[in-house]
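Subject: complex prediction, re-run

Hi both,

The earlier run crashed halfway through, so I resubmitted it with identical inputs.
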Amino acid sequence: MMSKRTMMTVALLLLMVCVARAGAKYIFYFIGDGMGLGHVNTAQIYNRDVLKNPPLLMMKFPIASQCVTYSANSPITDSAAAGTALSTGTKTLNGMVGENPDSMAVYSVATRLKDSGYGIGIGSTVAGNDATPAAFYGHAHYRKHNDVLNADALKCSYNFLGGPMWRGTAGKDGLMTGDWKRNFEKAGFSVYEGYDQYAKAKDMKEQVLLLSANPQGEQVGYTIDSIPGALTAAQLTQACLDQLMRTSPDKFFMMIEGGNIDWAAHANDGGAVIKEILNYQQAIDIAYKFYLQHPTETLIVITADHDTGGMAFGREDNQKKGNIGLIDFQRISKDRFSDWCKTFINGNKSITWPEMQQFIKDNLGMYGAIDVTVEEDAEMRQAYDQAFVKRTAKNEKTLYNDFNAFAVKVFDIFNKKAGIGWTTTYHTGNMVPVYAIGVGCDLFTGVQNNVEIPRKILEATKL
Ligand SMILES: [Zn+2]
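This time it finished cleanly. Structure:
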């Protein structure tokens, strides 16, 4: 006969075995678009040296490994092929979403988990049908086939979709028309514009679409631009979590993309990248708090689809004087600075050099708290003459913007003074970081291939 004490010990051991055997019930998947190791590391240098904060939470996770990102036809992937790899576990050609190279539909980990009864939420700080979020519900030969991706979104039956806006096909401007919102409503979604509207809402349906009340073009707006009432990655995560706990409290999967990290990196705007990563960290904090309450049931995985820009702290033309603290003087993104410059060119208005210097001083600190050398002043003055006096300067085209040439010069000098270097305005073939904590996190060790990540997530669920 077993004593009462032995019986209790046996029962406890059995329970522990069960807990160890149980798969991940709550899964948070964070994809920092374009978030290479250099981006995280530069943000951490700022976090440590200027803010005097403890390390970024993701860097303290028990698993910190790496992932290769090449696509089926290039060592340098685009977001469509990378999103497909990270969502479905299939390598495909650049430009393709949710399809293999033979144009056959392949299905995401979200679809698989939906079929197994998990609640599903997908959110992004850029358009809800941009390549990364679309790879979790859609299938298209080409990432810009918005009509195809939108139709897939309408029938995905996920519990939460979130993003600043959706690219539509009806309007000539390529933006989502009012009809698209109505289509989501007709498809069974409760639609909200802005986090406040969502937070106050009652009688929500099983499916929620959260949009931005004030989208900035196709994204929520950069953190560094301090847009009043901007939808944030943290709000998207909180709204998604609340909706999933309401509709599917036993098990859920969510993917939240930090899309504007990539946009800032395409712009080679170092200050904006750092602020976006710190902002994204607040979204990850929400998942981490949830993990602390459900440590034996939760898995958090953080990675990136590719590196954008080859960002690094340290550059040849300023090896010894890199000063990351200078970004505290930056109050405007390069995108907005460029937009402001273009108002003079497009409106055929003039601006004097002293007026321009004042604008730079107010928004970037140079000519004020930050000294400008004679050479730097000459370079900016020459770029000013070409752009605003002679009007011969050509814009610099990047993936998401067409930058005014003067803005490019000013930000290059600002990057140089801060010590932030770039190799390209496009993506690189660099490996990206992987961070994980919680149930099944041990699966994510070593140098991985991006297609392994969603397969490992499925493995962690023990389905
Ligand atoms: Zn991307």
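The longest strand covers residues 26-32.

- K.
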